[in-house]
Amino acid sequence: MIKKDYDQNPFIVIWEVTRACELKCLHCRAEAQYRRHPNELSFTEGKKLIDEIETMDRPMLVFSGGDPLMRGDVFELASYAVSRGIRVSMTPSATPNVTKEAMITGQSAGLSRWAFSIDGPDEQIHDYFRGTEGSFKLTVDAIRTLHELNMPVQINTVISSFNVNELERMAALVSELKCVLWSVFFLVPTGRGEEKHMISPAEHERVLHWLFNHSKTAEYDIKTTAAQHYRRVVIQQKKRADASEKAIDYQDTLKTGMIGAVDGLGRAPKGVNDGNGFVFISHTGDIYPSGLLPVKGGNVRDDGLAEVYRHSPLFQALRDPSNYKGKCGVCEYRYVCGGSRSRAYALTGDYLESEPACVYIPEAYRARS
Fold this sequence. Notes:
Cofactor: [4Fe-4S] cluster
Protein name: Radical SAM protein, BA_1875 family
CATH superfamily: Aldolase class I
GO molecular function, one term: metal ion binding
CATH architecture: Alpha-Beta Barrel
InterPro entries: Aldolase_TIM, Elp3/MiaA/NifB-like_rSAM, PqqE-like, Radical_SAM_PqqE_MftC-like, rSAM, rSAM_sf
Keywords: 4Fe-4S, Iron, Iron-sulfur, Metal-binding, S-adenosyl-L-methionine
């Protein structure tokens, strides 16, 4: 198993290359606008950022937005990053910008994967959530074109009150579209996202158990975002399935957070959390623990990315579970899980508070009763 020292280097870097986007998604973290911001990182600044990312053990780099295709030099930036030995993927919006020509250019630039969002199993749910009629059809058409080019495709889905009861249909659609990875996000109320559209803690637990059971037979792989407690569910279910299982040293897992191996699908070998294996660069260069945790640690124009990630008090606090409060601070799964620091901040104003969407009662709490 390859060990990753998240105190030194992130596993994944998300760069919001622009906030410009033609969609009006209900949950948009970026509160995207139709036009590009005049203070976006320039092409030269982008290359400098990529050079620094290379020095941090070449983490995965995702071009995000907004819509990355609203930036004319995005494929040049991708090509440069690939030339530096960095694996690059992109999450474009499903708009008329997603042409076959753009896909071929991205393929030539060396993009390892495209990721599209599908938030409902049909046009009615997805287009309402995305705020744009025709988005569902454009997405499906784009995915099929990428298959023609033999480009791997990932589907991102935000679980919310709009689709929580549509999981079976969503899973069937992901299978039909022959995607390599289903990345399941759980709504964090930031940007345009609203708390009223979140699912309840009990629904979180139900969905996480459903995902684990579904993963046993799915034709694609599954990972979660903003649902760190999925790792706890996986460990619990595997222990219940075979109490004598020796394939995983669970005590070591809980101490180190190591739950798997580095693979080609973008899944980390140990639990990634906000500021802990994960870092986000905004369109204007601000450095955040994640795009869903809007507490700034610095700016790449003034501060070194590595310096901020490794040494800023914000990032160091997030990487130390002994700082966590409430039940997260005493939970036996805190090293492998840690709860969503973004959701804790969004709902309590404190990124070190307990995960509000977790129903699990730690052993330390049960011992008191």
